Amino acid sequence: MCKAALDQGLLPYTISTEGVGPRVDRVNYDLLDHRSIFLELGMTLEDVVKSVTINAASAIGQEDLGTLRVGSAGDAAILEFRKGNFRFEDGLESELQTARRFSPVQTIKNGKLWRRGQRDKKHLCYRCPRRNLGTLKDPLSKEKK
Predict the structure, then answer these.
(1) What is the CA 3 to chain-centroid distance, rounded?
(2) Nearest-angstrom CA–CA distance, 123 and 136
(3) What is the phi/psi pair of residue 109, to 5°?
(4) Which of 2, 24, 78, 124 is the most buried (most CB within 10 A)?
């Protein structure tokens, strides 16, 4: 269905994940995977980037986010394409094969390099690969309580 809409020129204004946490009965992808999927479905790199930056910030009325202009928040994700054979599936058992996938390289927060393990009390994402927040736990973690 998404591919048909894109083929007709109906591009999403924003791209996001669909939930607040993993669900056992569904396929769960992070925002980098969603970007990779929409790029493979035919969106341009520019449209994919806009949909998760300036368009998303505009949709929530936060004009100081999603941009690198002087005076903005100064947050940025430095990404690269990883080459390989990647498979994405949806809840209807459809499958999409890609040869590249977005992968994180570095994060800039408030204009400064974000270091692995650095804490940010506002950051509540337990799935972030660079997290080290101590008290927040992945609800699907197999660690004993």
Answers:
(1) 19
(2) 10
(3) -125, 125
(4) 2
Please write the tens of the pLDDT for every residue from 76-117: 899 999 999 999 887 777 889 999 999 999 998 888 888 766
Which two structure tokens, joined as six digits, stand for 124?
């509540």
Domain boundaries, the chain: 2-18+27-113
Residue 38: which of 61, 7, 60, 63 has the closest Cα? 7
Question: What pTM value is reported for the model?
Answer: 0.71
Q: Which residues of 48-71 are buried (b: 16+ CB within 10 A; e: fewer)?
A: bbbbbbbbbbbeeeeeeebbeeee
DSSP 8-state symbol, 90: -
d(CA 110, CA 107): 10
Q: How far apart are CA 140 and CA 63, in angstroms?
A: 35
